[in-house]
Amino acid sequence: MTGTLYLIPNTLGETEALSHVIPEHVQAITARLDYFVAENAKTARAFLKLVGARHPLARPLQEITIAELNVNTPAQALAGLLAPLLAGRDAGLVSEAGVPAVADPGADLVRLAHQHGVPVKPLVGPSSLLLAVMASGLNGQSFAFNGYLPTDAAARGKRIKELEARSRGEKQTQLFIETPYRNAAMLEALVAGCVAATLICVATDLSLPSETIRTMSAAQWKSLLSAGKAPDFHKKPTVFLLLAQ
User: 9 vs 52, 101, 123, 130, 189, CA distance in Å?
Assistant: First the structure.
């Protein structure tokens, strides 16, 4: 019999109030596992330390196996990561932040688990994308996540125009993210590239004490930026959303 692959949500940032975002039963399941596949081992250990403060871990933290799976992991390494599950050992897949396998390289391991008949169990926890959709006031019936936009200014501007046109044609909310230190450049590109009536939401530090969420038209954002009142989002994880009118 194979083990089960548990998809374990992480917090969306540094927080000591773990129970505010990670349900107790998810913490309890996490605590009994001794094999994890994580995007970042250091982040995973910090998460397990928080879990261990409320639920005794199956083994001392230094004895728990944490294998890394990130953008640098070669495809041929996936079989080795899955091998313990095929041998009957349960495992937890943990992202660096939020839910695993969504905007996360863990999806490759989940797909391989299905191919080998390994049960996959998703657990409840915070997703910055869904929290942003919920709080934006934009269309929650139809939305699409587009990952990162191009870093080149011209290519980024073209992509924004394409997403705005798709949003207008399909009445669909478009979501994307940016490397936190480029948040200001992204908002400036949105204001410059979108028509005045297009709604833009900026959702920062979701689920954290410093959380801020604001939805305004491109014209309103332009006025705010011109007045030197940009959001406090430098180097803070942020989700951007737009909905063309």
Answer: 15, 10, 7, 13, 32
Note down the domain range covering 26.
5-122
Rounded alpha-carbon distances, angstroms, from residue 2 to 54, 66, 154, 199: 29, 19, 50, 48
Measured CA to CA, the distance from residue 106 to residue 56 in angstroms comes to 26
Residues 188 and 101 in one domain: no
pLDDT at 78: 97
Number of independent structural domains in the chain: 2
Whether residues 93 and 154 share a domain: the answer is no
Q: What is the DSSP string of the chain?
A: ----EEEE---SS--S-GGGTS-HHHHHHHHT--EEEES-HHHHHHHHHHHHTTS--SS-GGGSEEEE-STTS-GGGHHHHHHHHHTT--EEEE-SSSSTTSSSTTHHHHHHHHHTT--EEE-----HHHHHHHHH-S-SSSEEEEEEPPSSHHHHHHHHHHHHHHHHHHT-EEEEE--GGGHHHHHHHHHHHS-TT-EEEEEESTTSTT-EEEEEEHHHHHHHHHTT---S-TTS-EEEEEE--
Residues of the chain with confidence (pLDDT) below 70: none
Q: Are residues 114 and 67 in the same domain?
A: yes
- Asked whether residue 166 falls in the same domain as residue 222, the answer is yes
Give residue 130's pLDDT. Answer: 97
Instruction: Mark whether 165 and 117 lie in a shared domain.
Output: no
